[in-house]
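Hello support,

Our group uses your service weekly, and this is the first time we've seen a run hang past the timeout. The protein is DNA-binding protein H-NS. I'm not sure whether the cause is the sequence or the server load. Input pasted verbatim:
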Amino acid sequence: MSEALEGMNEEELAETIANAQKALETKRRESRAETIAKIKELAASINMDVELTEKGRKVVPMGRTGTKVPVKYRDPANPKNQWSGRGMKPKWLQEKINAGAGADDFLLPEFKPQQAAA
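Update from on-call engineer: The timeout came from a worker crash unrelated to the input. Re-ran successfully.
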């Protein structure tokens, strides 16, 4: 076989390799199908149902997709400092609170509670 390969030019070798790869893929698919059929047959023989999933392929659960939460707090001294109000307080806000300010001082107007008219 190696003598036959040595006598081939690059084009013939590439074609032979491509044909061999196709044949290998066909054999793998056939072997896989036979194995799956055997597994299902064995499962059916003991009144079991089997669902097969391919290894290495992760099933991503359908769920929430990181929706943006509006900013509720903003530092007037540095507008880049902002916080949605969820999770831990950011360092900039905690420092301001430790310095004597209240968190409500940084709350955006649209989120401030309405004052009842007297």
